[in-house]
Amino acid sequence: MEETKYKRVILKLSGEALAGDKGFGIDPVVVDSIAQEIKKIREHNIDVAVVVGGGNIWRGLAGSAKGMDRATADYMGMLATVMNSLALQDALEKFGVDTRVQSAIEMRQMAEVYIRRKAIRHLEKGRVVIFGAGTGNPYFSTDTTAALRAAEIEADVILMAKKNTDGVYDSDPKYNPDAKKFDALEYIEILQRGLAVMDSTATSLCMDNEIPLIVFNIDDHSNILKVALGQNIGTVVGG
Ligand code: UDP
């Protein structure tokens, strides 16, 4: 059997990654293309779990900034992640990849409820598991979900797909032409320097549980397979 660097990965897709040119909503053509890359990872026998965000549809903070109750706005955000999860499942199954959506909030007609042991079992059977509805709790993010689920299912690495950037920089390259890209860095530096990689809850969870993370660019979908196969692209955090 092929020896791959990782045996089990968690792919974190922001909601934005599923949107088309307009930057919002779901573009089935884009979702199909991502699904095909995930299929290629499975062909290397690597276990794949996916955490999808919801920012292409709704972000809790945006609602609360305009006066909504934060928890209610966050539940709406979690629902958005379930829509994205179902879209990705649909595409994966169309390409013959067995997939289960596990939702952290019960919606039995659409998805299984999240049960850790069952998720692991699915992965062992070669199914892709998509974790929907985040952690199931308001005030959290899907980055934190990726960290939590990675710890729970003992993933080797979190592959964090980002649009419009190819890794972590010491300052925003959009505004600073001298911004320097890190090939590798430690979680504590993200916290100390306030780098916009992910929120501090997610960062601490990864740091405390020693979960490596790779930030990579998903504007080119073929990077998904490259990073899963251990190619040196993007920025390695805590590795
Ligand atoms: N969310 C939440 N708890 C979670 C995960 C997500 O309340 O555990 C809500 C939150 O409102 C968030 C929205 O779901 O804004 C969408 O998730 P996120 O912003 O992480 O998506 P992304 O930026 O990755 O697209």
TrEMBL record:
Allosterically activated by GTP. Inhibited by UTP. UMP binds at residues 54, 74, 135-142. Its main location: cytoplasm. GO terms for molecular function: ATP binding; UMP kinase activity. GO terms for cellular component: cytoplasm. Pathway: Pyrimidine metabolism; CTP biosynthesis via de novo pathway; UDP from UMP (UMPK route): step 1/1. Pfam families: AA_kinase (PF00696). ATP binds at residues 12-15, 55, 59, 169, 172. Keywords: Allosteric enzyme, ATP-binding, Cytoplasm, Kinase, Nucleotide-binding, Pyrimidine biosynthesis, Transferase. The keyword tRNA-binding does not apply. It comes from the Bacteria. Residues 7-217 form the Aspartate/glutamate/uridylate kinase domain. It is found in: Cytoplasm. PANTHER family: URIDYLATE KINASE, URIDYLATE KINASE PUMPKIN, CHLOROPLASTIC. Homohexamer. Catalyzes the reversible phosphorylation of UMP to UDP. This is Uridylate kinase. The gene is pyrH.
